[in-house]
Amino acid sequence: MPWQQYFYDVFGEVDPKTGIRVYRECAVSAMRQVGKTTGVRVAKAHRALDTTTPQLIQFAAQDGIEAKKKWLAHAKLIKKSPLADRLLSLDEPVTSNGKEALNWANGSVEFPISSKPDSGHGDTLHLGVVTEAWSLQDDRYENTMLPAMNIVPDAQLLIESTEGTAQSLYWNARVDEQRARYEADPHAPGRTMFLDWSFGPDDDPGDPETWLRRIPSLGYTLRLEEVQYAYDRATTPAKMRQFLRGFGNIRDLGAAEGTMFEESEWEDGADPESRIIGDITFALEISPDRSFSTVGVAGTGSTGGFHVGIAQRHRGTYWVIEYLVRKMAELNATTIYVAAGSPAALMVPDLERAGLTVVVIPRNEVAAACGGIYDDIREHNLHYTPGQTDLDLAVSGAVWTGGDVRTFSRGSSSVDISPLYAVTLARYGSILARQENSDILSTIA
């Protein structure tokens, strides 16, 4: 496939001045079932054979057992191919416990290593391969392999994986670091290769155009109909996260330890028939790094309780004023709610100059707002239209702050919880508006 050819072209690039491979560290992040394993098999075989000196290759996976299973599967495929003639003997691979090895006739050898700290130490290494890196908690394979390459100028470390979960500590850190380096300077020199195929933050995950643009195996080993089928089945937040991880290479952060809600509690509120009746309240929330702005809405639900939703969410803040002025005029709304001390509170002067009434919710009332929506979700008194992925992810990854008076933690949550805060503030604003509009005399007999 073209993406695999591109990978080989870059991974195998040689500096014409020195004759050594350009990239010391090579990382590939891509969706499941796009051909990463085939790419690794070919890279290992090519390294073993395209050489004038014997090569030592180490292969690692989630743990020692998985490494041996995958390594053996690779070796059996080679024995069924024309490359079998290039092996040392018909008895390859050696599968004796602790002595596993695939020996090539030219002296190159490949063996699997375990996850024990001392596994692989003492060997001079030409190619180290780490697969399924999302399952790793630390960088022990790097710490084993890279020092063994010090006296081999064109040695390489190849790491491949799909994005994982909140527990994928090693891979998450590596991917985040490489993406940040690219954003800072796309043309920065170095000996690190990072290839990344995934849905972008502004992509519509349900749009076939997104699939065609982002999934490198689509039209080759994967049909459009299979992606559509998988997307149509993603009817709950958990299933949507599975779809995004498998087909979009998006990290599944819903499994973070300490999240506030059971998934079933939130999923029970999904109601395609529910809508807001009567007045609609608006709230604005901006992520701490100001990369995204979210407008939340809330009001009385047609099926009882509250109905909440995301009216709009986009990158940056440039669009917020124009959108709110237009949308709130359409719905005959004039008041927008923001949280005191939040990034959105910095926009209060601009919102007021645009003719909007802004209510800044004090910090102690923000805690009440968080507690209120938490209770409504658990007591099935809150409804929303299904399919709001950003809101689903925010709910699934949110955690409490510490202390006696708790709010949703912007810093400790595993995801950007701005969408959750936006509907939380909108719901609380709806309560405040009801109280302001109620006639106290009507309660007196």
Mind sketching the topology for me?
Layout: H1 2-11, E1 25-29, H2 36-49, E2 56-60, H3 64-79, E3 102-103, E4 109-112, E5 127-130, H4 140-145, E6 156-161, H5 169-184, E7 192-196, H6 208-214, H7 224-232, H8 237-248, H9 263-267, E8 276-286, E9 292-301, E10 306-315, H10 320-330, E11 335-339, H11 348-353, E12 357-361, H12 363-378, E13 382-383, H13 389-397, H14 418-437
Parallel strand pairs: 1-6, 1-7, 2-4, 2-5, 5-6, 8-11, 10-13, 11-12
Antiparallel strand pairs: 3-4, 8-9, 9-10
Task: Note down, in words, how this protein is organized.
This protein has 445 residues and is α/β, with parallel strands linked by helices. It has three domains: 2-196, 3-Layer(aba) Sandwich (Rossmann fold), CATH 3.40.50.300; 208-248, no CATH class; 263-437, 2-Layer Sandwich (Nucleotidyltransferase, domain 5), CATH 3.30.420.240. 35% of the residues lie in helices and 17% in strands. It is built from 14 helices and 13 strands. The strands form two sheets. A seven-stranded mixed β-sheet has the order 3-4-2-5-6-1-7, sandwiched between helices. A hairpin with a 5-residue loop joins strand 8 (276-286) and strand 9 (292-301). Helix 12 (363-378) packs across helix 14. It starts with a helix and ends in an 8-residue tail after the last helix. The relative contact order is 0.10.
Q: CATH superfamily of the largest domain, please?
A: P-loop containing nucleotide triphosphate hydrolases
Number of domain units: 3
Span from first to last CA?
Answer: 78 Å
Q: Sketch the major β-sheet.
A: 7 strands, mixed
- Structural class determined from secondary elements: alpha/beta
Overall pLDDT, averaged?
89
Q: Count of helices?
A: 14
